[in-house]
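[Meeting: bench + compute handoff]

Bench side (C.D.) handed over the final construct sequence. Compute side (W.E.) agreed to return the predicted structure before the next meeting so the bench team could plan truncations. Sequence as handed over:
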Amino acid sequence: MRRVLLVCAVIFAGLAAGTLTWLVTETAASGESTPSAASPQQSTTTSSTTSSTTTTTLPPLVTPPPNPSGIVNPIEARLPAPPPGGIGPGALGPMVGSIQARLAELRFDPGPVDGQYGPAVVYAVQALQKYKGLPVTGVVGPAEIDVLNRFTYPEPLEANAEPNRTEVDIARQTLTLYENGQPRLLTTMSSGSGESYCYNTPKDNPTERICEVAHTPGGRYTYYLHRPGWDVGVLGGLYNPYYFNRGVAVHGYASVPPTPASKGCVRIPMHIAEYFPTLVQKGDPVYVIGGTPFEILSREPLAAPAPAA
């Protein structure tokens, strides 16, 4: 069959830049169409491209078995690696929020989960580092992320002790509060500095000057007195103190260094001291492990004030 080709040429005058554009369309009489010049030409050679897809399946998160003491350990997490140099005070963003959420899940108290690396987060990270024997920097690096992801609770220092109790570890400078045998709160703390100091007592109309060494005595005690708010004595102000051994208390303080720094009390961060007294009750036991007995260096009577003229 003789094929008759119909060729139509339509010429459009291009006004832009004085150019002329041609569009030629060729159509076969048989009804078959040939691609226009404006369309890409089909190649007679076909190419087959094989795409490979790699699927990475993460292993399931694992819950470590309970400790020999029966403490239930948390399920593993998958926090991402920190940036080079770690992540620390002043940092902002989702990574900080993830760290805060994990710390809170583990019973540390980093404050509100708001994505801001403030003092409360520093205290919580310091506590984590103390419990796991890491350098106490308050900065989260690869080692801290690994610990956060695979955290297990340490064994209690007092075996077979009361299910509701406080353990103060002088060596690690930590405080662990147990409720029904399980960790309720883990925090950094600062105990007696070991330095000597003197004070006049009693506070009003003092009659005696005492010099002693700032020790936190070891032993088993019980909470016996809570003073809401600031309790100001001869050694200064204690925030929300709960006394357990004469004048020794667990209390809030503006500065809680990672090392011993107090006059003998157990300092905890202020944001924790706000609610700590609600977690314990009068009569609950307090175990101070590794403490040093009181040491009085001297005590002298003060001269009576001269009578008023």
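W.E. noted at the follow-up: Residues 1-52 have pLDDT under 50 and may be disordered. C.D. will use this when planning the next construct.
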